[in-house]
Amino acid sequence: MAGKPLRVDGIRAYAQGEIFLLTKAGDRLDALVYNTTGFGPCPAAEFDALDVGQIAKDTGSDLAWKNPRRFWMMDTLQINIVGEPAEFGGVKFNLVARMQLPAGFNTNEDQSAQAYRPAQIHRVSVYEFRSGKPVFLLRSPDWITWVMQSFTDHVDHALTESALPDLGSRLTLAEGWQFKAVTLDQDLTITTNGLANIVPDNLSNMYQGCIDRVNNFDPWG
Q1: pTM of the predicted protein model
Q2: How do beta strands 178-183 and 188-193 pair?
Q3: Domain presence at residue 141
Q4: Dist. CA 77–CA 74, nearest whole Å
Q5: Domain limits at 53?
Q6: pLDDT tens track for 96-133
Q7: 91-118 as b/e, with b when 16 or more CB fall inside 10 Å?
């Protein structure tokens, strides 16, 4: 997972889009994850117009999948670029990660179909959340804290950054899961050196788990 680090400051609520190039591996799919971060905020109209069938054909992939446009929720992001950039339909992307998608992943669905089912992704990254800023947390039944890394209005079209403190009232939590909004009283850093644990909620917002000492403290309190 060595690569050139890309650092972007002031990235909270920054629009980004992803394309997954997929290769069949038995009953699962291996993915190369391309993200628009580093080329400016993701342009909504151009991203929505991307044709995943054409992208798969052009790249020689078995399939391609478009992750609905999202908004980063950290204040500073550093992520390693792990391959050459690509341009799909006039939109530029960096190759930022590799992962194996969960069994049963359906490219006709968004990530809300995998709600509250943790997965793993290979990447090298540092997320910095500043003191005095809000963070939005899940806690799983095994008492792991999950920190929101991005939100989307793809499922709930009325979801905005300003609505996130009340997100708990909009979620349908799986049994034993909790949600909490917290204002940080110190900087939170999440450092991933190869393998990140992630989970979506039922509105397709994405969280990273505070697992294997990636976090400098537990923001749940």
Answers
A1: 0.92
A2: unpaired
A3: yes
A4: 7
A5: 4-104+114-209
A6: 998 888 777 888 888 898 999 999 999 999 999 999 99
A7: bebbbbbebbbeeebeeeebbbebbbeb
